[in-house]
Design brief:
It catalyses: 9-ribosyl-trans-zeatin 5'-phosphate + H2O = trans-zeatin + D-ribose 5-phosphate; N(6)-(dimethylallyl)adenosine 5'-phosphate + H2O = N(6)-dimethylallyladenine + D-ribose 5-phosphate. With about 200 residues, this protein is α/β, with parallel strands linked by helices. About 50% of the residues lie in helices and about 15% in strands. Helix 1 runs parallel beside helix 2. It is globular. The two termini are about 30 Å apart.
Length: about 200
């Protein structure tokens, strides 16, 4: 699978988040997946990509020209796609990905999470979306959305469109399980060809 990982680029965060990013990159590579990321070499974004490559995984970075110009691009990416702006960046990342994994991050990460979550809730895509949150950074967000749901501001399936976990291995199991569910089995492909 091509798994898009949304995560922090801040360099002012606790080192435990960098360790989490490395663990995710290593597990992604171990499972034979390709990383799609924001294409920066700094903070968690750089750590996840370096760990994926160290484990033999392939990495695709997608970065706007403005960030290339300030020299934060992951030039070691197997493929580095340079976009005109942030909107195009998100579109390319979405199009290139089979699934989405969200790690702790800032407002940019939240924007990416909400865009994918909203589109899935509206039925605009059926790609798996998993939030990996070992230390509860997103707990207030979950409470907020639960309150919005109770007040009638969200669609009934808002929480069917997303999975939450605190464990790296479980995060990948959820992504793989939901992707297998969406993909036709070899038997189903055979029936379609015969029918």
């Amino acid at each position: 699978m091509f798994i898009c990982v949304f995560l922090a680029s801040s360099q002012r965060i606790d080192p435990k988040y960098l360790t989490l990013a490395r663990d995710v990159g290593a597990e992604l590579a171990r499972r034979g997946h390709t990383l799609v990321s924001g294409g920066a070499r700094v903070s968690c974004m750089g750590e996840v990509a370096r760990a994926a490559r160290a484990g033999g995984g392939r990495t695709v970075g997608v970065i706007p020209q403005a960030l290339v110009d300030i020299e934060v691009a992951d030039t070691e990416a197997d493929e580095l796609v340079v976009t005109a702006d942030m909107r195009e960046r998100k579109g390319v990342m979405d199009a290139r990905s089979d699934a989405f994994l969200v790690l702790p991050g800032g407002i940019g990460t939240l924007e990416e999470l909400f865009e994918i979550w909203t589109a899935r809730t509206l039925g605009l895509h059926d790609k798996p979306l998993v939030v990996l949150d070992p230390w509860g950074l997103y707990a207030p967000l979950r409470s907020l959305v639960e309150g919005m749901h109770e007040a009638g501001f969200t669609r009934p399936g808002v929480f069917d469109a997303i999975s939450w976990t605190t464990d790296v291995g479980e995060a990948f199991e959820l992504l793989e399980k939901r992707t297998r569910h969406l993909s036709p089995s070899p038997e189903e492909l055979g029936e379609a060809a015969a029918g």
